[in-house]
User: Fold Glucose-1-phosphate thymidylyltransferase from Filimonas effusa.
Amino acid sequence: MSIILFDPPGRESLFPLTQTRAVADLLLGMLTIKQRWQHWSKEQVFVLTSEYLQPLYPLAAPGTHLFVNAAVLPDEQLRHSILQLAEGEALQDEMGLIACRFNLGKNAFSMAALSPHLHHVVTRTGVTHLQYPWEIFMWNDTWARTDFPLLTNGKTAAAISASNKVLGENNLFVEEGVEMEFATINAATGPVYISKGAVIMEGALLRGPLFIGEKTVLKMGAKVYGATSLGPACTAGGEIKNVVMQGYSNKAHDGYLGDAVIGEWCNMGAGTTNSNVKNTGGEVKIWHHATGKFILAGFKCGLVMGDYSRTAINTAINTGSVIGCCANVFGEGLTPKVVPAFTWGMKGITRYEFEKALQDIANWKKMKHHALSEQESRILKHIFEHLLQ
Assistant:
């Protein structure tokens, strides 16, 4: 038996982040949704997503599996109910299927194909669904605290140099192979987890809850507030607060980044700064791809940025901005509130030439010893040709 995390029908609500990945691959807290289910279940976890993204994810062999809506963020009671489902049983709420266990053989997964196989369906209420990309940074504090014991259970932390100053030592976990000297860490405000291969340079100030992924680098004098999660191989500097970087992205220099979620392979030029609060103190409106409207997103909302996007030096990012994937943002003044995917510049919007975009992405990947795969290129071609019409 395996767990199969499936994208909900409304996965477009999480664009631009889910234009280039399955919902299960979103980092929230200290783990991706897929990693969290692996910890909870101790089972192999597979992903079922849109057809154009599926080549990135191996499919499970035919058989009986537990299918779980990847956008559902369960509490302990719901998680227990999901894992205890017997074949033919299902859970649902007003938004649709939460989970079920069944055997479809070689048939495609769909609600129509499911129905004949389910003999007992229970309706639940009060279920939390991840519906909007900005919920990732809004809920990051809660999930970082939830994930910390999952990550540390049964493990022994590495010793750290006496040159570092730590408050709340019991809430700090450092893996082997971390380079860290003369850093100040306040884990009394929330747990701090530093993954292997990370480099914390001199003078860095860290405040929990905080997750630092493998091979991520914090530059000298970086100020990182909770609740922040920096995925693998990121570079971070300046002032960062309540930010989730999915991985392989850079905000290496001075400037402020706050209340934001950043995709993979992004780069922010030196001095890039975002606003996260309106001058009026009013509620922030942010663009929602699925409805094609601006919707209210709370009083603090900075930036949502899709994969492979970049900003020029000294870019000033408007409150509640959305930058699509594969955008090259430069120009004078505040950015527009919406920068579409494959944008070149920001004033008098021009489309990025596709082949040039691929070459530029490949160049950035090379800097971190990665290469743009054929599968990734095909996915970007699909987005360029079909999702921007």
Remarks:
- The domain at 3-123 is CATH 3.90.550 (Spore Coat Polysaccharide Biosynthesis Protein SpsA; Chain A).
- The chain has two domains: 3-123, 135-156+226-387.
